From TrEMBL:
GO terms for molecular function: ATP binding; ATP hydrolysis activity. This is Heme ABC transporter ATP-binding protein. SMART domains: AAA (SM00382). Residues 2-239 form the ABC transporter domain. Part of the ABC transporter complex HmuTUV involved in hemin import. Responsible for energy coupling to the transport system. The keyword ATP-binding applies. The keyword Lipid metabolism does not apply. Keywords: ATP-binding, Nucleotide-binding, Translocase, Transport. It comes from Zunongwangia pacifica.
Length: 269
């Protein structure tokens, strides 16, 4: 379990996060949503101690501050929103970076096998010898996701995957492919926290959702509890209607209003 209690972050008298408390249980896919500037990336930075905070973060019943870097490297992995664009290496060597905590000089047979399996997860196997720098935005994204899966492929329990907007640049096929792979990962008794903007994907895949705005927790709970028309319209300051997804039976958010169609017609010459 990951347990966050009364997390606060201030920078130069500005409150970036205020009194944030939540748990992620083993087996849960946890999604963090909220408008631009809500504090979602800042929260993930706190979970990887890239930013100073007050409050408690316990990972597997132990303060995260007491964990050694070596142990964390095999138990927690983070996919950042912004990647280094220029990496002059072939794809399989970028994914092998995820295995650096596992070997000193040369990768072993297990590391090579894990890299190969991780490339399969994001359907990047046929790109393995291609130069990373020549890939498209979505392909680069899939390489880094493979790297994260490679990093956490081991026998440890209750591992934590932190993904900051992993679906950027991915088409609908790969958005679902990646989220399904994360779901398989958590169902093995692990945890994932994903920052995303697509509320409908959050509704379909999240076990629990945290909704942030202006650094504050607005709602935290199951998708049906968090994704209500009243809350979403108010928080995003945009008209919407929440219905039931006809196939998945999860909440389905439709943005806009009937009137807007007639407004668009009226302004057309
Ligand atoms: N180092 C910093 N110093 C000052 N302000 C910061 C710093 N880092 C982030 N902020 C501010 O904190 C707020 C939250 O930023 P954060 O990146 O966490 O938002 P977000 O919810 O991830 O937004 P987005 O959806 O736009 O990616 C923003 O207003 C941002 O400008």
């Amino acid at each position: 379990m990951l347990s966050v209690n009364q997390l606060n972050i201030h920078i130069k008298n500005r409150k970036l996060l205020q009194d944030i408390s939540f748990n992620i249980n083993a087996g849960e896919l946890f999604v963090i949503i909220g408008p631009n500037g809500a504090g979602k990336s800042t929260l993930l930075k706190a979970l990887t101690e890239e930013i100073n905070y007050s409050g408690e973060i316990n990972f597997q019943q132990q303060s995260i501050k007491q964990w050694t870097t070596a142990r964390l490297a095999k138990t927690r992995a983070k996919f950042s929103q912004h990647h280094q664009q220029d990496i002059p290496l072939p794809v399989n060597e970028v994914v092998m970076m995820g295995r650096y905590p596992y070997f000193a000089n040369r990768p072993g047979i297990t590391d090579l096998k894990v890299v190969s399996e991780s490339l399969k997860l994001t359907e990047m196997s046929h790109f393995k010898d291609r130069s990373y720098n020549q890939l498209s935005g979505g392909e680069k994204q899939r390489v880094h996701l493979s790297r994260i899966f490679a990093q956490l492929n081991n026998e440890f329990q209750e591992k934590l995957m932190l993904l900051d907007e992993p679906l950027n640049n991915l088409d609908i096929y790969y958005q679902h492919k990646v989220l399904k792979a994360v779901k398989v990962f958590v169902k093995k008794g692990n945890m994932a926290a994903i920052v995303m903007h697509d509320l409908n994907l959050a509704a379909q895949f999240a076990d629990r959702i945290l909704l942030l705005k202006d650094g504050k927790m607005i709602k935290y709970g199951h998708p049906q509890e968090v994704l209500t028309s009243q809350t979403i319209c108010h928080v995003y300051d945009f008209p919407c209607k929440v219905m039931s997804h006809p196939l998945a039976q999860t909440p389905m958010i439709v943005f806009g209003e009937e009137k807007s169609a007639s407004i668009i017609q009226n302004i057309q010459p």
